[in-house]
Structures are given as structure tokens and as C-alpha cells.
Design goal:
617 residues; alpha+beta; five-stranded mixed beta barrel; 18 helices; 14 strands; 12% strand; binds flavin-adenine dinucleotide
Length: 617
């Protein structure tokens, strides 16, 4: 097979269907007026279409694009071969706009289905999917906050893929510390400004997939306060756009360089210079300066969910490739035949330790998928109830979205790397060399815990802001749902002991949470921030255990009640029960141990003298 046609994309459609339609009953959304124009059949059809696109177009480009990367020539970035045709096809199919509201020109489908489509696209080709993912985020931002005249100019071409989008926050000295940015804006007239500055590491910062690129740029208007309070948001197109919508002269935005990096090689990561020739035109989003961070958070929250999704997607395909390899690779004989020197060689899937690794990967992938769809369904219900004027219900669901967003971002991105590492381990040496796909997945996955706010930034967001959301009601609603589940299913014939263990772990988490509150009240801020990441880890593990056990209860019911089902269906459901049990017995105890660490208040990382890390400087 030629390099160009290697296709390693794998996805588990049965598992996706289970999560969408059996566990989260996404079809019930169609009873709400906001989604009533859609049906389950329609959703199934678009998922099949997306699957075909991933199998026939995106998957075969992933390997070769990783090897070739992007090229910057004469100030213009070229995306890898095949991407332009794939981009055109993607927008002909309309998949990026599935969840965009009808008001903005989209299909207004459920976000819960959008995430399933995105899982397939990123599993097939994570780098490619970043270009359209950023366009989707920029489109929503313009659609929600821009002035009408700017919506007229930019929305339609972003819907059709004529224009792409980016998000420009980072600068060389301002990464996590966005408030330190120095990009400047000087007002010309109306909402038109001149922009000056340099942004670094801008994903999809330049390419040749679309006619134009709409950069969403954070900058400080001259005289505005320092820090995040003085930041405004601007639309800065690569080419100026005339009033009739046609493309005008080149704007003063230049690509200084693109990065050579560990993974996602086919996603151009650019350094962009604005206003070197004093001719960079930008348009304030909305009519108020200094509210840029609030507006940008619309895109950032979406992007955080998308990054969690990338983790799920890449981990999912890595797991399925490792599983396929484990079914074929013959090595050693069965441990049960240890006395027989003539025992036949077996596939490595028969070895206990390989089964352990496979089940860890499976349970984490299923847990991530459940987590992402759970959050997405809360998004849908929040929108649907708001549309019906039921604001209390909408607020409840929005509160759960807020609480779960840092968990989705951080858990899925951290675990994606762990799952990919286990996939490499399952392959043995074959996983480390470039003849198989898992080394690329491992390299691609590392960035997920870094960009879009490092995972520590997510942990700070969870502990310092989200746990206190709606005066603590979001957290108590979350805990109430968990307690109700534990009370109802503690005697479940399949997973009763694991449900009891979940309840005990949740109690420990509450105790650990009390310790964190103490650190806060005693102004021990160094200790508070020390334990934010461990606390996020605990809460993620407990949430995922809850989701997996809930799925296991449903699976066990389906397995035992329907005697007409095929062996494959029977095994599928048995697999769901096994992965929940495994997670509760192998992973959940780690959360309990971490709770002990948080309560201990250990200060060694804080009190060690800087030179104590090493006397080597
Ligand atoms: C491939 C790639 C694509 C990217 N795409 C984009 C993009 O499209 N748009 C964009 O704007 N940016 C993008 N970025 C930038 C990315 O968002 C930043 O790298 C990220 O926000 C972290 O900033 P930093 O790299 O400057 O790390 P730093 O902020 O220097 O952080 C270094 C370490 O210190 C920790 N740290 C920093 N501050 C604190 C603190 N206050 N408390 C505790 N710990 C702290 C961090 O958690 C991290 O572990 C991209 C980066 C890469 C590598």
C-alpha cells in the first residue's frame, strides 16, 4: 500500500450509538420545539455520511500529511496535499454547520450529535479537523457578538467554507497569562481600528484551504487598563472585505514562520505579525471596548470542549488499532498451558497483562465519550429550555455545562496521552517505530493538555470558580444526582459493590473538598493551588466511574432482558459491564488515595528550597 493511501482510522459506531441513544437518549431532544425539525433517522443518516467521509477521504490523508506537514513559501502556507479537496467536500456535506443555529444559517441539530460527528472527524484526521473546528468557533463568536454589518460580511462565507477562522490570544511573553498581552489597537472610525503586534502559535494561522481567514484577535485599545480588564476583541481578516462582500486588498497580517513540532504536523501553527506596514484593519466585536475576554470566552469554552473531544477521538482510534494488533500478533503460549512445552503460540490478547491494558483503554475511552455526550446534552437542554422560556431548567443545565467543561478538557486530554501510551505499549516495539499508527497518535495527543489553557488552568477554573457556580448549586446538583444513583443501584446484581465503592469515593471527595475550602479560608493560597490539579483528577475519576456504572446498569438490563439479541450484541453489553467494573476496581481507588493526599496537606513541593530541586543551575 502506498504511504498516501494508508488509512488507520477506526471508530466504534455501536459504542457511539449506545452512548447517544441508549444512555443519553438524545432522541428525546426532538420533543423540544427547538429541535423538533430533526429526527433520529436524519441523525443516523448524517452520522453514516460523516463516517463514509472519514473512511474514504480524511483517514487516508492522516499518515501522509503527518509526514509532509505544512510548508511556508513566499509568505503563504500550503496545507498538505489532499486537504483542499477534503475541505471543499466537508463544506459541501455541511457537516461543520450541523449544530449552528438556523438564525445563523445552520441546521440547528443537537450539540450531542455534533460531538459524535466531531469525534469521527478528529479520529480520522485531527490536524485537518482543527481548520474547520476553529472556523466553527469563530463563526459562533461573530454570530453572537459582532455588529450587524460585520455579520453580513463574514458569516455567510464562514458557513460555506470560503472563509476560515482562528483564535489569536497567545503572544511570546503571554501564554497562560493572557492579561500580559501587548498587541495594540488604535481607533480609526466607527468600530474600525488599526492593529499592531505579534501573536504566536496560532493554529490554522495561515493556509490555502479557504479564500480568506478571519482572525479573532485580542488586543488592548490605547489607554485601556492593564490586565484582562483592558482587553478588546477584533475581527482581523487576512484579506480586506469590500462592502459588497467581495475580497479586497491584502490586509497587513503576515506569517512570520510556522512551527516544527512534536505532533499535529498538518495543522499550521503560525507566528503572525499585525500592522508592520501600519495598515492592519480590525473591527471591534460589538460596540463596547474592554469586554474582549468575556466575548472570547464564548469561543474558548467551545474550544475547551473541542480539545476534550480531540482527546477522546485520538484515544478511541488508538485503542481500536491496538486491539486489532493484539488480536493478530502471536507471541508466547497461554499461561494456562505453562506445563506444556508444545503448547501453541497465542495471540497476545490472550495474555492477562495485555487484557488489562486493553480494558483500561476501553474503559477510559468509553468514560470520555460518556463525559463528552453528557456535557453536550446539558448544552442542548439548556438551549432548548431557554427557547421555551423555562429559565430555571435552562440555568440548571447551563450550570452543569460550566462545571463539566474543565473536567472534559483536562480529563480527556490527559487520558488521551495515557491511552495512546498504553496503545504503544500494547504493540511493543512495533508501536515505537513508524510503521504503525500509534506513535503518531501519541505525538498528536500531547498538545491537548497544553493548549486552550493548560490543564492546571482548567483545575484552577474548576476549584476557584466552577465549584462555587450559582452559589454552590451547580455542585450540589451534581452531587445530588450522584447520591441518588448510588442509593438506587447499591444492590444492583451486576455492579452493586462497585456502586457502593463509588458512593464511598464520593464521600472522600467531599472531605477533600472541605480541606481545599479550609486552605482557601486560611488564605493558604499556595496549598490551595497545589491541590487544584489533584482535586480535578479526583472529581474526573468519580464522574467517569458514575457514567460507566450508569451505562453498565443499562447494559446489564439489555443483556438479560432481550433473549432475541445476537451474540455480538450480548458480548457488546457484557463488555460495557466489564469496563465499568474494571474502572471501579482499578482506577477509582486511585481517586481515594489522592483524596488522602489532599487532606494530608503535604507541603514538600512548596517548602523544598529552589536549590533543593538540584544544585545544578
Ligand atoms: C501546537 C500549538 C497550538 C496552539 N494554538 C493556539 C491558538 O490557536 N491560539 C492561541 O492563542 N494560542 C495557541 N497556542 C498557545 C497555547 O494556548 C499556550 O501554549 C498555552 O496557553 C500555554 O501557554 P505557554 O505555552 O506560554 O505556557 P506558560 O504559560 O509559560 O506555562 C508553562 C507552565 O507553567 C504553568 N503555569 C503558568 N502560569 C501558571 C500559574 N499562574 N500558576 C500555576 N502554573 C502556571 C503552566 O500550567 C505550564 O505548565 C498553541 C500552542 C501550541 C504549542
Amino acid at each position: 500500500m502506498s504511504e498516501a493511501s494508508l488509512n488507520y482510522f477506526k471508530t466504534d459506531l455501536r459504542s457511539l450509538e449506545f452512548t447517544l441513544f441508549e444512555q443519553y437518549r438524545v432522541q428525546e431532544l426532538f420533543d423540544h420545539p427547538y429541535f423538533s425539525h430533526m429526527s433520529k433517522d436524519e441523525v443516523t443518516a448524517i452520522m453514516e455520511q460523516c463516517y463514509r467521509f472519514c473512511t474514504e477521504v480524511l483517514g487516508p490523508l492522516n499518515h501522509s500529511a503527518d509526514r509532509k506537514g505544512c510548508v511556508l513559501e513566499n509568505g503563504q502556507v500550503r496545507a498538505p496535499e489532499g486537504f483542499r479537496a477534503a475541505w471543499k467536500k466537508l463544506y459541501e456535506l455541511g457537516i461543520p454547520n450541523f449544530a449552528v443555529s438556523m438564525e445563523l444559517g445552520g441546521f440547528q441539530g443537537p450539540f450531542s450529535v455534533h460531538v459524535a460527528l466531531q469525534e469521527m472527524l478528529s479520529a480520522a484526521n485531527c490536524s485537518f479537523n482543527m481548520y474547520s473546528g476553529l472556523t466553527y468557533g469563530a463563526l459562533e463568536l461573530v454570530g453572537e457578538f459582532a455588529l450587524e454589518k460585520d455579520k453580513q460580511k463574514f458569516l455567510e462565507p464562514m458557513l460555506t467554507g470560503r472563509f476560515a477562522g482562528t483564535m489569536c490570544l497567545s503572544e511570546p511573553h503571554a501564554g497562560s497569562d493572557v492579561g500580559a498581552l501587548t498587541t495594540r489597537a488604535v481607533r480609526v472610525e466607527g468600530n474600525k481600528y488599526k492593529i499592531y503586534g505579534t501573536k504566536c502559535w496560532i493554529s490554522a494561522g495561515d493556509h490555502d484551504l479557504a479564500e480568506n481567514i478571519v482572525h479573532m484577535v485580542l488586543a488592548r485599545v490605547e489607554g485601556a487598563p492593564q490586565g484582562t480588564k483592558g482587553i478588546s476583541l477584533f475581527i482581523v481578516p487576512k484579506y480586506k472585505v469590500n462592502d459588497d462582500g467581495s475580497i479586497g486588498e491584502r490586509n497587513d497580517v503576515t506569517t512570520a514562520s510556522i512551527e516544527h513540532k512534536l505532533g499535529i504536523n498538518a495543522s499550521a501553527t503560525a507566528v503572525l505579525n499585525f500592522g508592520e506596514e501600519d495598515n492592519c484593519e480590525g473591527f471591534l466585536v460589538g460596540d463596547t471596548e474592554n469586554v474582549g475576554m468575556k466575548h472570547m470566552f464564548r469561543m474558548m469554552n467551545g474550544a475547551r470542549i473541542t480539545v476534550g473531544l480531540q482527546g477522546l477521538a485520538v484515544a478511541g482510534t488508538a485503542y481500536l488499532n491496538a486491539l486489532a494488533y493484539a488480536r493478530e500478533r502471536l507471541q508466547g503460549s497461554s499461561v494456562k498451558a505453562f506445563k506444556d512445552p508444545d503448547a501453541p503460540r497465542v495471540a497476545i490478547i490472550e495474555h492477562s497483562d495485555v487484557r488489562r491494558m486493553l480494558l483500561e483503554m476501553k474503559s477510559k475511552v468509553e468514560g470520555m465519550r460518556g463525559l463528552v455526550v453528557k456535557l453536550a446534552k446539558h448544552v442542548d437542554l439548556s438551549v432548548a429550555y431557554r427557547h421555551e422560556g423555562k429559565h430555571d431548567e435552562a440555568d440548571y443545565h447551563q450550570g452543569q455545562v460550566d462545571l463539566l467543561t474543565p473536567i472534559v478538557k483536562a480529563y480527556c486530554s490527559d487520558q488521551a496521552f495515557r491511552v495512546c501510551e498504553l496503545a504503544v505499549q500494547t504493540y511493543g516495539g512495533a508501536g515505537y517505530v513508524k510503521d504503525h499508527p500509534v506513535e503518531q497518535y501519541l505525538r498528536d495527543a500531547k498538545i491537548f493538555s497544553i493548549y486552550e489553557g493548560t490543564n492546571h488552568i482548567q483545575a484552577l477554573d474548576l476549584v476557584v470558580r466552577k465549584l462555587r457556580g450559582r452559589s454552590g448549586r451547580d455542585l450540589s446538583d451534581f452531587a445530588g444526582n450522584l447520591t441518588e444513583f448510588v442509593q438506587k443501584h447499591s444492590n444492583d446484581p451486576a455492579v452493586g459493590p462497585e456502586v457502593v465503592a463509588l458512593g464511598a469515593a464520593a464521600q472522600k471527595m467531599q472531605d477533600a473538598g472541605q480541606s481545599i475550602i479550609q486552605y482557601m479560608m486560611q488564605s493558604k493560597l499556595d496549598q490551595l493551588t497545589l491541590f487544584c490539579s489533584p482535586f480535578l483528577e479526583v472529581m474526573s475519576n468519580i464522574t467517569v466511574a458514575h457514567i460507566l456504572l450508569e451505562a453498565a446498569v443499562l447494559a446489564e438490563e439489555a443483556r438479560t432482558q432481550d433473549d432475541r439479541q445476537s451474540q455480538a450484541e450480548f458480548d457488546f453489553y457484557a463488555g460495557r459491564v466489564a469496563s465499568a467494573r474494571f474502572f471501579a476496581n482499578f482506577m477509582l481507588p486511585q481517586a481515594v488515595a489522592t483524596c488522602r493526599t489532599i487532606k494530608s496537606g503535604d507541603r514538600s513541593a512548596l517548602d523544598i528550597p529552589d536549590r533543593g530541586f538540584s544544585t545544578v543551575w
